[in-house]
Design a protein that fits this description.
The chain contains six helices and 30 strands. The protein is mainly beta and 454 residues long. The chain has a domain of 118 residues. The strands form eight sheets. It has an eight-stranded mixed β-sheet. A hairpin with a 2-residue loop joins strand 7 and strand 8. The structure holds zinc ion (ZN). The site of zinc ion has 6 residues, from loops.
Length: 454
C-alpha cells in the first residue's frame, strides 16, 4: 500500500507584534473562542474522527484566487470502491459551486476522467468546484473548512456503506485584488521563502488521516530545528498551521516553551525548554492551528496570550483552572470563553453574563496587557467582578418588545456561590507584581507562522 507523504512547511515570517500591532490584528477577527479551541484531542488514535476507508483528502490547490476553480482529491485504503459521495454538512450546503451550480454533495470517481488523473489508482477526484460568492464572502482572505460529514462508499460489487467522518480539510480563498502575491526566494528544493513565508519541505510516512495528528509533536520539533539551521534565533513564537487533514483536532493549541517572568502564574513557574527546539532561549511558545490554514487572526491572538494568561492564583476566582478566565466581567478579552461585558445575579443561585448586542469588543483587556508586560500595573481596571465556584448552566436569550428599541439579551447562565470583587489590594495579596515590570518588559515580539503543506 502506498504511503502518505507530508512534505511541506510554510512559515509566515516576521511580523512585528508591538502593542499597537496586537491591538490592530485582534480586531480583524472574532476572538471569542469556543471551548474546543485549545484542548488537545481527546483521542489521538482518531477512533472517532478516523475513517475506515479514506487515507487522505485534500482540496487541490490549497489556496486559490477568489473565483478560481479547484478540485477535491481523495486517496482511499482499499481497491474495491467504485465511487464515493461526500455529503456536505447542513451548514456547508450550497457553499461551493460544482460546474457553476450550488451543490449539497460531490461524487468522486477513479475513472481517469473529469479531472481524475489516473484510473484505478485508488485516488478519487472531482474538479470544477468554485466558491459560491453568495455564501462565502470576504474582504482579504476567506476559507471553507469541512469537519464531520457523511461519506457514502459505493463498492464495485454494488454494495454501499455510509460513514460519518471528521474530514478536517479545507481551502483558502484570496482576494487577488487586495492581497499582493510576494516573490519567492529559493534556498534549495526543500526551502523557499518570501517576505512573509518560508516553505520548508519535510516528509512523513503514514497510512491514515490521523497520522499527522499522531505525529504532530515530533514533526514540530524536527521542522523547527531545521528552521533554525537556516534562519536566526530571533522568533518569540512559532505558529504552525497544517494543511494536512487533521481529524479530532481542535482549532489550535499553545505549547509554552520557556518562561522567565515572575508574577504571572501561581506558583511562579520558571523554565526553559527552548534548547529542545534549537533555540537559545528566545522561543516562548509554539502555537499549532489545525484545518484553518493559519488564516484566523483571532485564534492566533488567543493562543499567543496563553504565554502569559490565565494562570493567576485560584484564590482570586478569576481563572477556571484550564489556563482561561472563569466567569468574569471583562469589557473585552483575548481568551474569551465564559467572560463577558455584564455579569449580574438573576436570583438566589442563577447568575448571567452577556455582551452588548452588536457591541462585543474584541482585543486584550488591561489585565491581560499588564500580564503581557504591555501596560503598567496601575493601568489595570479594578475592581474585577467574577463568580465564585461557578458552573456553566447553558445559554439564554430573551427579547422584550416593551422597550424601544426592543431589548435583546443573550448570554450564558451559571450557578455560583457568590460574586467576588478583586480590587488592587486583594490582587496583590495573592499575586506578586510582575517582574520584569512594565519599565523594562519586552514590548516587541516576532512570530513565525508556519504552514504545513503536503
Ligand atoms: Zn485557550
Amino acid at each position: 500500500m502506498k504511503s502518505l507523504i507530508v512534505k511541506g512547511f510554510l512559515f509566515l515570517i516576521s511580523s512585528l507584534l508591538s502593542r499597537e500591532a496586537i491591538s490592530q490584528s485582534i480586531t480583524e477577527n472574532y476572538i471569542q473562542a469556543d471551548v474546543k479551541i485549545c484542548g488537545k484531542p481527546s483521542d489521538s488514535k482518531g477512533t472517532t474522527g478516523g475513517s475506515d476507508y479514506i487515507k487522505k483528502i485534500t482540496f487541490q490547490p490549497y489556496v486559490v484566487d477568489e473565483n478560481e476553480t479547484f478540485s477535491v482529491s481523495c486517496a482511499v485504503k482499499t481497491n474495491d470502491i467504485q465511487s464515493l459521495i461526500i455529503y456536505w454538512p447542513d451548514y456547508d450546503k450550497g457553499m461551493l459551486l460544482l460546474n457553476d451550480i450550488p451543490c449539497d454533495s460531490i461524487t468522486l470517481f477513479d475513472n481517469g476522467q473529469n479531472g481524475d488523473i489516473k484510473a484505478n489508482d485508488n485516488i478519487f477526484t472531482i474538479y470544477n468546484l468554485r466558491r459560491n460568492s453568495a455564501f462565502i464572502q470576504f474582504n482579504y482572505v476567506g476559507g471553507f473548512f469541512v469537519r464531520y460529514c457523511n461519506v457514502k462508499y459505493i463498492f464495485r460489487n454494488g454494495s454501499s456503506v455510509i460513514e460519518n467522518v471528521d474530514l478536517a480539510f479545507g481551502i483558502r480563498f484570496i482576494n487577488s485584488q487586495k492581497v499582493d502575491i510576494p516573490g519567492v526566494l529559493k534556498i534549495n528544493d526543500s526551502i523557499q521563502y518570501s517576505s512573509h513565508v518560508v516553505n520548508l519541505v519535510e516528509e512523513l510516512e503514514g497510512q491514515s488521516l490521523n497520522d499527522y495528528m499522531n505525529n504532530s509533536f515530533k514533526i514540530e520539533v524536527e521542522v523547527i530545528k531545521k528552521y533554525y539551521k537556516y534562519f536566526p534565533d530571533d522568533r518569540d513564537f512559532f505558529v504552525v498551521s497544517s494543511t494536512f487533514p487533521t481529524p479530532n483536532a481542535p482549532a489550535g493549541w499553545c505549547e509554552t516553551v520557556s518562561n522567565d517572568i515572575v508574577g504571572i502564574s501561581s506558583p511562579d513557574n520558571i523554565y526553559n525548554l527552548s534548547p529542545n527546539y534549537g533555540s537559545g532561549g528566545r522561543l516562548k511558545s509554539i502555537i499549532s492551528t489545525f484545518f484553518t490554514y493559519g488564516g484566523n487572526a483571532g485564534l492566533v491572538n488567543h493562543e499567543i496570550l496563553h504565554k502569559w494568561a490565565a494562570y493567576l492564583s485560584s484564590k482570586l476566582y478569576l481563572t477556571d483552572g484550564t489556563g482561561h478566565w472563569g466567569a468574569v466581567e471583562f469589557q473585552n478579552s483575548g481568551l474569551g470563553l465564559f467572560c463577558g461585558q455584564h455579569l449580574y445575579r438573576l436570583n438566589d443561585t442563577i447568575y448571567r453574563i452577556y455582551n452588548d448586542r452588536n457591541n462585543a469588543k474584541v482585543g486584550y483587556n488591561t489585565l491581560e496587557l499588564y500580564l503581557m508586560g504591555l501596560l503598567p500595573f496601575d493601568s489595570v481596571s479594578f475592581p474585577i467582578k467574577s463568580l465564585v465556584n461557578f458552573k456553566y448552566k447553558g445559554s439564554y436569550w430573551f427579547w422584550n418588545t416593551n422597550y424601544e428599541p426592543a431589548l435583546y439579551e443573550s448570554g450564558s447562565e451559571f450557578t455560583a456561590d457568590s460574586i467576588s470583587y478583586v480590587d488592587k489590594a486583594k490582587y496583590l495579596k495573592y499575586m506578586p507584581l510582575r517582574n520584569p515590570d512594565f519599565s523594562i518588559s519586552q514590548k516587541d515580539f516576532y512570530y513565525e507562522g508556519r504552514r504545513k503543506k503536503e
